[in-house]
Amino acid sequence: MSYTYEFPRPSVTTDILVFSIRDGVLQVLLIERKLDPFKGAWAIPGGFVQMDEDLATGALRELEEETGLSGIPIRQLGAYGAPDRDPRGRVITVAFLALVPSDDLQARGGSDAEDARWFPVDDLPPLAFDHAQILADGRAELARDVTASIHDSALVAFDFLPETFTLSQAQQVFETLRGEEMDKRNFRKWLTNEWAIEDTGEKSTGGRHRPAALFRLERD
Amino acid sequence: MSYTYEFPRPSVTTDILVFSIRDGVLQVLLIERKLDPFKGAWAIPGGFVQMDEDLATGALRELEEETGLSGIPIRQLGAYGAPDRDPRGRVITVAFLALVPSDDLQARGGSDAEDARWFPVDDLPPLAFDHAQILADGRAELARDVTASIHDSALVAFDFLPETFTLSQAQQVFETLRGEEMDKRNFRKWLTNEWAIEDTGEKSTGGRHRPAALFRLERD
DNA sequence: TCAAAAGTGTTGTACCTACACCCATGC
DNA sequence: GCATGGGTGTAGGTACAACACTTTTGA
Description:
Order of helices and strands of chain A: EEEEEHEEEHHHHEE
Oligomer: homodimer
Helix content of chain A: 25-40%
CATH class of the largest domain in chain A: Alpha Beta
Low-confidence stretches of chain A: none
Number of helices of chain A: 5
Strand content of chain A: 25-35%
Number of domains of chain A: 2
Number of strands of chain A: 10
Largest interface: A-B, 28 and 28 residues
CATH architecture of the largest domain in chain A: Alpha-Beta Complex
């Protein structure tokens, strides 16, 4: 089966930047390309959009095919369409952004991916296409979202924490997502203002030092 | 000449939302469609992207073809790709946003446009495709940009003013762009803090009332 | 007793909002 | 003299950044 058109058409792909915190650092999910171009190189998961699916749906489908990860909330980052960004010809991609708790998933290879792996954002392999640019843009957008407490986006931050957590644990998570450190007292003020945080009355145990109070997010 | 592909491909278009201030109100440039679908309806200018041009370049080319307007700074708004957004089949569009001084141009019809006209954003005709949604998104984005004084975007605001202007004139322009009124004294404080505004020592003339001091933007 | 993390307040600055009256001019 | 728009200052609230010492515990 083939498809004929009166005018040439670009291909359209979607890519999803999936961020998570693993081992205390911000990481991004990448796939090793099974096929040329850039065979063997690492890339943002994604692929060609199908004719009957929404862009976001296509992005999620490709993500699941390539990494096994599914059903996560995403938001659009933007379209990338420089004429020479793909050596196969004209390929325009629409990039999406996601933040997921990493215990949800066991990344694995799939249809078009030799392998899927998490990489710390500060220790990336060379990337295929213009994916380094897309990743940098997504990283900046993520920090903006979390800083601005866009709640639907930033709620995910609490998925990186256990049900009850210490303020230090929370600070670690937010600092990792925002990519910068903050003052302890200021963070605590910010957190308790911005979010409904409740003191459980419990104390952490097993630490090598002074036990810390345990808090819980009041979800409505 | 025709083009054959192994897999079906969507079409890709670009659209540019061009905003301006005319007659003291925020207006948007629309074209009347010459062809089906939606023949005779109004739409955001735009069209099919060519194989060798960047998305932004294509958007500007289409804009010039359809309206005669060229060489304006644009920024990307996002991609719209619902499968049923175009009755002709799968068409994905990448929308751009621009703000231009309206005296630059005389909008006119062109290749694919019967007519090009400015419409006040609060008095729009029914729009083709999902263009009402795109326009609403662009309107919100414009207000955000101007409020946040993203200077490269907001600098254009001063193009709506004469070389020397009164503070009231400036307030009119910013209120129109932001879509809301503000207190006179607060506006003046904001303006002089946020921008390098210089008192020329001159006074406006010809007004029916008390002459106003004339200011100038110090451009670097 | 020491190392390590927990915990805790104040101050200055900047910014935003709300708000009311007098002034200069043309008609 | 009156209508119209020009022009001005203050006070309260909120948010953010900077900053240092004491407490509790395990080892």
